[in-house]
Every structure is written in structure tokens, then in C-alpha cells.
UniProtKB/TrEMBL annotation:
Pfam families reported for this sequence: DDE_1
Domain of life the protein comes from: Eukaryota
DDE-1 domain segment(s): 151-326
Tagged with keyword Transmembrane: yes
Entry protein name: DDE-1 domain-containing protein
Positions of the UniProt region annotated as Disordered: 396-431
Keyword Transmembrane helix: yes
GO molecular function per UniProt: nucleic acid binding
Composition bias type Basic and acidic residues, residue spans: 413-423
Keywords: Membrane, Transmembrane, Transmembrane helix
Annotated TM spans: 21-40
Amino acid sequence: MLANHPKVVKTASTLIKTIRAAGAVITIITARGILLAVIIRNAPEILTRTFADGSSFRVSESFVRKWLHDALGYSRRKGTQAAQKLPSDWEDQCERAAIRRAYLIKEEDIVAALVVNSDQTQVLYAPGDKMTWAEKGAKQVAVLGAEEKRAFTALISVVSDGTFLPLQAIYSGKTLRSCPSSNSPNFHDLMNAGCILQESGTTTYWSNIKTMKNFVNKILAPYFDQQKAALSLPTTQKSLWIIDVWSVHRSQEFRAWIKTSHPSIILDFVPGGCTSVAQPCDVGIQRPFKHSIKRSYHEDVVSNILAQMDQGSEGMNIDTRLAVLRNASTRWLWNAFQTLNNQELVKKSLTRGYRQAFEHCRVRKWDLSYETLTGVTARAYLRDLRNTNPEFWKELTSSDFDNDLPPEDVPQPEDRLDDREFQNDNMDDSDVPNQVVIQSVINPSGEVQSEYEVSEDGGLVSKGGIMAEGYDNTAGEDVAVNVVEDKELGRGKRRKVPNRRYMGFWKHNDTTASDSEE
């Protein structure tokens, strides 16, 4: 695809080498953003090509990997995290957890609006799989180290009835200066939506007991109180909070604090090592959240490089200072919050999708949807349990389920917070629209839009990118290209840019055209 455009190849290659030499981490998304910006400014007609199946060239991640390997000698670093290994008795554990949840809902008359699942995820400031420098004749230099680990934690919560709660973001540091500036983009939008941006109070960006208490006091408990008031329920009405067995969650200190400070909140723990199949946020929410973050970061890279090119800047670079990226994160979070909560285009499907996040947690004849846990089959099972499994019935009717928790001093998979860093980060190509990923999560067995297909790891990739990989010199069909005069380039100097409708795909919301395309 780039064989007939040596200027694009040379310019993009030089930029990537320069930026890497300046110490910036080159991820596949960073590289894609740089290459795309160069194409937009130097050969936009490439982006108007269509293939025989009707798909168009979108500079997919699969294409960029091949191009980086061939043009620069970069190679993809293998994933550092294997898929979660389930316990041998995971089905027994998850079935018991589902029955326990059905029992609590029945006995405490808990409505769907009072069942919440929360989950932490680590968000890298430079998302995407890392690339390793391997120039011919040069000593290999690995792109690893402290910069690669820079990140923040996002706490995501979804309700069984389809509601998406405000986000909490945790940043490394001990003062408010460690958090994004109040002047950062969309900061006040996040605040008005009830989101929390908080320093960790430590040298890491992990959640801890202090940040968890703040989340409960400022987001979770107020939400439960509002729902009880709206439904004319007493303030003593019980609610159910589903969380994993991370060491802070299962600690005696945190459990005792919940019982004392928020006695109406019942803690319901996902069995250890089973979050990939039994935690709704893991099953249905984290993937589109991470994808939205990834697209926002990619948009920033393209916009940044385009602006520098338009200004004629020498020694172009990507600013990777922590303060700059931290302030940029507020826009990423706001975009993700809107994508998963407020956008009219996806609101109906997302409500269904959030409910299905519970439904997709399945084991044997059970799933975690409110409809299943309160259905005829579940109620009949509970009625018969006294006779069919008296030991489990005795456990259910006891006053406390804490005995089922792993001891605090016995490590659990959920205690390794760094393992969560790469969850769902690289499943879907960054050129795949958010809504396409959301639909894939909602209906994983459904047909994929004709422009995309499912990769080996289960993510979505662009068919156009795959075709371009295999047929670099294949001529596609040209689509209309506009020629406009650019005042900054001077009189008589003109620049070709593609029709706007073919260019919005690099934006976070790919139906939005870029101002820089004019």
C-alpha cells in the first residue's frame, strides 16, 4: 500500500526513530498515529482506496506491525500476561456463589437497582503492545522500564439493571498536585457527573483501603441512598455489592468498616481466580472501556503530530511528561464515560449490554442476571436445598459468609494488581469503532460487520488492513479527493485532502470529522 509513496515511508520512519531516540515509548498505537498523520498530510488519497469487498484502508494495527517490521526492523513484544487460569473446581465455586446471591436477593428483597459490581483496572498512559528497537547493525534496545509502567487505576461500577456509575481514578502521589489539573480537558464534566479523581496517598497508583472508603462514601453509598428514596424503600433496605477477593476487599479492616459505617451494604465476593468468568465488569465492561481509552490516546497522537507538521516544527516529538499525560487522561476518561453511559447512539444497546454483562457470567445452568437469580428455577432450587444439600443450606442460613473467604495471608490471583494492567488492552484494533466493539461484547456469537473480522485472540481487526498487508501493490478504487487552498502554505500552494467522510475514523468518535482535515 505504501510502495508507491516513498516520501510517506521516509517521513514516518524518521519521525518514529526521532521520537524513540528522545526516550518515548513506541507502542503500536503511537506508531499508527504517527503513520496516519503523515499519510493525511502527504498522501491522503491512500485513505480513499476501497477494496473489492467494499472495505477501505484504515492503517490497521496489523498493517502497522508488518510495516514497522519491514521498514524499521521493529518486532512485537510477546504478551507478558497469560489468560487467567481457573481453579480446578471453578464451576463448583461459581455455582455456589450464584446460589448464595440468589438466596440473599430473595431473603433481603433486593431489587436489581441495588445490585452493583465494581472492578479496578490499570490504564497505561501509552496503551498498546510495546515495540522493541531492532535496527539492522545496531544493538537491540528493549523498550522496558519505569516509563512503560506509568499508569493510573480506574474503578468501574455497573448496576444489574443497566446503570453505569461514576468512575473513580487513582493517581500515584500523596497530594492533590498528583491529580489532573482543574484546567485539564473535560475535568469539570467529570466532576459534574460525580466522578472522583484522587491521589493514592502512596508512591503507587494502586487502589488502597483509603481510596476504597472514599469510593463507598462518595459514589456507592449515595447511589444506593438515591435509589432507595426513588423507590420509596426504607433506608435500612439491604443492597448487594459484588467485588473480587483482592486483599484490601477481603481484609478484616475493610469488612469491619463496611459493617459499621454502611451496615445496609452486603459484600458479595467473586470466588478467587474466577473473575474472568464470574465478574460482570471483567466479562462485559472492561473491554469497551479500554478500547475507548485506546482510541482517545490514538486521537491525541494524530492531532499532536498534525499540529507540529502544520507549524513546520523541527525535531517533532511526543510529550511524554507525566504531568502532560495525566492531564490528558481526563479527556480519555470523559470519552469513555460518555461511550459507556450517555451517548444517545448506544444508550439502548448499552443498557442491554450491561445487563448482559451479568447474564454472560455463566456456569452450568446459572448465570448472574437478576432475572435468572430471581426466576422460578432459582426459587424452586432454594426451596428444595434444605433437603438436597443440608450442609450448604446451613451455610446459607448462617449470619455470616466470611468463613468462605480466603485467609488474608494466603495470596490470591486478585492480589497481583499488576496482572490487571494488560487485561483487554490489545484485543481490538484501534481503528475499530467503539460501537462495533460494544456490539461484539453484547452479542459475542453474532455476525461481525463486513468491514471487520475476529482475530485469533478474539479481538476485532479491519479486513482492509489485512488485505493491504497481503497485497501491498494492489490498486484500490479511488474515491473523491477534495483540493483546498491552505492559507498557511502560501498563495499558489495547495494540499490534497480526502473527502471528510472518509477521515473521521481516526477520531475517538469516528462519526466526527477533524477540523484539521479542512
